[in-house]
Amino acid sequence: MRTTALALATGLLSLAVIAVPAIRAHADDPALTLELKDHKFQPANPTIPANTKVKLTVKNLDATPAEFESEDFDVEKVVPGNSEITVNVGPLEAGTYEFYDEYHEDESTANLVVQ
Amino acid sequence: MLATAVIVFREVMEAALIVSLVMAATTGLAGRNFWVAMGLAGGVIGAGAVALFADTISHLASGMGQEVFNAAIMFLAVAMLAWHCVWMSRHGRELAHAAGSVSRDVRAGRRPLRALAVVVGVAVLREGSEVVLFLYGIAIGGESQAGQMAIGFLIGLLGGAALGAAMYFGLLQIPARRLFAVTNALIMLLAAAMASQGVAYLVSADMLPAWGHSIWDTSALLSDRSIFGRMLHSLIGYTARPEGIQIAAYLATLGSIYALERWASRRPDVMARPT
User: Which pLDDT score, from 0 to 100, does residue B92 have?
Assistant: First the structure.
């Protein structure tokens, strides 16, 4: 039984090890930076190109942690206070996509415009 | 107050459903409550640690530390769940039938309990760290309504725990001879769900190919961020817009556990071997 579990764990671990070198820089992907201040995103209506993967950086200028979340483009990531995170968004079809800081949903809700 | 209650409820509910399923699946094993309590305690401590080091974790793996960390603990839980399923495929029948004549190893049931304590810990750690960060934000944000927030937190906590308890007692209504067949199937689905969520994290981190985005889109029918959608997401891996690789991981996990169970039940000696 222990052997089975060990084999399983080893298998999964080696998968992870194989996958790690696959990290690519994606320097050619377009980038967008959002700033979060007083639980509000700036710019308020950011725009990204359609059908393109975008490197989205969220800078949290508040001292309180935030959770950058979007139901519409499937992102959920913690942004510690006075820190920043990067997520890959898309490729998305043209349209309007809602996002917010889950910890301050009412104040922070904004839209990402894809065109 | 309401916003706090909703956020805490969502996170607690997701962990509570997993804990309830684990508890139902280990009904009758000696020391069950101890190991579940160990898992809970470990999870709470872990949640605090993850929240404390959120900034550090976030900057690991070229800024994809959160994704890699989440994927790693998901895969750890998948391995533990698979182990449990394989163990139960051998001993579940004994447990369900003759309570008096089961072997000491089964009654003691330490091995699957330790594995499932890890699953409990992982579930609590993941959801708990978000609750801790949220509460930390309130604490340092100098919100004037701290008392209201505390009430909201309690409502959310109790509500989530009550939902978990309801599922636990619901599962216990299943006749004993069929209980383990049902919980085993549910544990397999939970493992598949966690594997599909694990690969999704690695896709976000650019470490795995997506094999197609939005293979289907049922978000209009049932959003996976709604309460019921989240319940199904946690328990059986419902995803409104799955990536191709998520579906592959889901099916591969179900297939692998099934194959391991078949293999184990054909080789009883391996399973009966003392630790």
Answer: 65
